[in-house]
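Newbie here. two chains, one complex. Structure please?
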Amino acid sequence: MSQQCVLAIAEQSDAAFRKITYEVLSEGRRIANSLGCPLTAVVLGAGEDISKELGEYGADRILVADNQALREYVNDAYTNVIADIIDKENPCVVILGASTQGKELSARIAARINAPLAMDCVAVQVENGNLVITRPMYGGKILADVALDGNPQIAAIRPNSMSIVKTAGAGSVEKLEVDLGKTDLTFVEKNLETGKVELTEADVIISGGRGMGGSDFSVIEELADLLKGAVGASRSAVDEGWRPVSDQVGQTGKVVSPNLYVACGISGAIQHLAGMSSSRVIAAINKDPDAPIFSKADYGIVGDLFEIVPLVIDETKKIKA
Amino acid sequence: MNIVVLLKQVPSTESFIEIADDGVSIKTDNVKMVINPYDEFAVEEAIRLKEAHGGSVTILSVGREKTTESIRTALAMGADSGVLIQDSAAEGCDSLGIARILAAALKDIPFDLIIAGQRAVDDDNFQVGVAVAEYLKIPHVSMVIKEEITDGKIRCHRTVEGGTVILETSLPALFTTQRGLNEPRYASLPGIMKAKKKPLDIKTLADIGLDAEKAGKPMTKIMAVKYPPEREGGTIIDGDSAQAKAAALVRVLHEKAKVI
């Protein structure tokens, strides 16, 4: 049997790699180094020209299937193709992002090839040739160390939780001919908001809660735009219909870990705190000095957000000037 | 149309989660157990589809006896029957093992459509529903916020980073729910009364032709659970005016925390 490898699945959208791809490659390289084996990247639905870049993030080989039918991610075709690649390449570890794509793709592949899968990993260790990963449960209220036993072992890593590391290497690009196999799903269309920063990938998140008092989030949006961040919302704000469900941060929404999380008019219900407590720095603005959010915030201001946030915007503009 | 909903009972999201003495599980005494919120969307969607197209809604779960309470709640909302697989051998299963059990139970339950939560809010694994679809060799669409069924086909609006994708497939199929799909109804009093008389079968693994070995040895094992690093409540920024407080906050975020 040839030497096993770590197989890293890249993720592209409109033929550009998503940020998670670089996180997956960097972490894959680190695992491959621990195991003393090569790192092979897989790119589906994008060209060899852009795929070369993955060598700079540690890939020794870059397998590219630039098939027109793989331009848009569709679960069954992707599962079929990747399961075939796993069969041929015989990896000991498969690593991919726990994005909306990676979550269902990894789950389907794990069931297909009967391999252990750890979802939403925030740390990966290699112990005696096996993966031991750390992942949040209960929306982040608990962290679990999970040992995987099987071959290959699949790790889906949480976006924004692994560092991106460039290396001096240049991987060799190999063109793959692939068979899409039996497919039942038809891609109809996609509707993406252009320029919108995705919450789970954002470096800065400005969130609003019940204290917003209505659907006018313009002060929050303005601060988010200024800091090139994303707008989040508490469950109350979403339940009130003020914000779309996709903005919800918390145990029944998105779990986020930006560099900076600013909670405005959010009291800090336990299920919200679970979803944002792993942010690097938390600031909170709330009228109620006893709001639980202040017990998690690095910096708090007791006051009216509609008075404070515009002043924060002015002050931020000054330092940016 | 015959619809099966995969349901799990979980601690409510308002619960404070405490680590048990064994260091690998959590304390479940005195924790309020509810239908997994994403499964509640599945129950509601199934009932709406039944109301529109006719047919039946079956609730299928793997769990302890207490799970019957959550199944009864779903029956009170309007589902027709329930099946609980209760077996001590199931308790050691990982996600793939649970999915194999559900898939085996589904051999005896006719279905055109299976609806599952995108994840359970306890283990947050995102695996079981998708794995069941794989074992049954049917297509799935995950994180669905809207669906339309016409002429034996289902069109699903799936949420992705920054938007939605529309996918279509023929039935039978499975989809998993996303928040926003619907607003689950409360069980009415007549509904609760009726639910008491609806069939709820409790089965063992042997009843569905499985044993612990066939369900599969777990390939993932929790070695330890711990609390995330405790965040210290930090500084409340004081100042003579709102202006002074805002300026102090921006200064500290810029100079000390270096995040803006």
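Moderator note: The CA atoms of residues 8 and 41 of chain A lie 5 Å apart. The domain at 6-175 of chain A is CATH 3.40.50.620 (Rossmann fold). Thread marked as resolved.
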